[in-house]
Amino acid sequence: xxxxxxxxxxxxxxxxxxxxxxxxxxxxxxxxxxxxxxxxxxxxxxxxxxxxxxxxxxxxxxxxxxxxxxxxxxxxxxxxxxxxxxxxxxxxxxxxxxxxxxxxxxxxxxxxxxxxxxxxxxxxxxxxxxxxxxxxxxxxxxxxxxxxxxxxxxxxxxxxxxxxxxxxxxxxxxxxxxxxxxxxxxxxxxxxxxxxxxxxxxxxxxxxxxxxxxxxxxxxxxxxxxxxxxxxxxxxxxxxxxxxxxxxxxxxxxxxxxxxxxxxxxxxxxxxxxxxxxxxxxxxxxxxxxxxxxxxxxxxxxxxxxxxxxxxxxxxxxxxxxxxxxxxxxxxxxxxxxxxxxxxxxxxxxxxxxxxxxxxxxxxxxxxxxxxxxxxxxxxxxxxxxxxxxxxxxxxxxxxxxxxxxxxxxxxxxxxxxxxxxxxxxxxxxxxxxxxxxxxxxx
Length: 443
Hints:
By secondary structure, the chain is α/β, with parallel strands linked by helices. The protein contains 13 helices and 21 strands.
């Protein structure tokens, strides 16, 4: 079992995160509970910034907020001098409402809505990442009506197959995102260059998530630079930015062995330098968009163990007070996690049992972890599931009308709620009963 960031086993044999005993966190805030290690988040952001700064070239590191979007987290992003990648009006509004500088925001998405584009233009975001011809027309229409000029990158699909789950591989030829190379991308380029409202900065690609090696990036950069060369030859311009997206993997289990953040940045920079030089083109500013690799390992989810069901000779189930509502990844794409009994982290081999962790949703597929060895789990124990910072809270739902958990930020012995726990009143707050149904009930 791996521990992450500031996590350790304290003198009581309990899991401690950010200088706080997780038993105390559960007693104060309840379960399920998302716990974020603030120091680990900041450390990873700084690793990205420092790795690029060592090369002495123009760059931007934008936190990919689809991994986890909260107002407090956006303020950490700002303090650490990162930019921000948003994919919806909701994420954009959260950032602006928190006071994040609009000119450091990049807006993604394959079907941006009219009112979302309006909000982005009105607030003065740094750049759109344009996904299709329809979006070019929308931006032209809205920006033209407001007498505004905006900056943009075109998202391209470099037709790269990578070793990850099908659902998070986004750079394939048949991806729903972006323009294929070269002709479709050149058509879109011409359309933007002829626009009076859009300034083209360059191209963006994202080949997939939870990637453990760099060969896919090297191929994608090579193919992308061919597009920069074609545009340079045709229009006599050198576009000033290349955005290679995100996707660096993290350790979910002992078998995961991702490249380091420094190694990842070095490989990206080296591939860009090599390929732009090969085409006799100036090196553009390099932008990237990490999300999971910043927030993933900084998150731990705490649950209370409830019912236990043993099928002799078959399986032993332990049920927790959460599940696919707060972590849909195992059901969605067979994600695998490590876990431990937070209130009894130390045990002998004889005390370890092979169990399956079941969620409380009314679904047979609500299995959080299959076949994991734990320290003789008992009703009332606290189960800590590691590396849950990315795509857990952000994908959580109210399935079965179960309220979503709280999110707490911990650092150097201090804890702060950054998202309150939902209650039953929150669940019905938007419900409305038509008058005709009220009359029937009264009758």
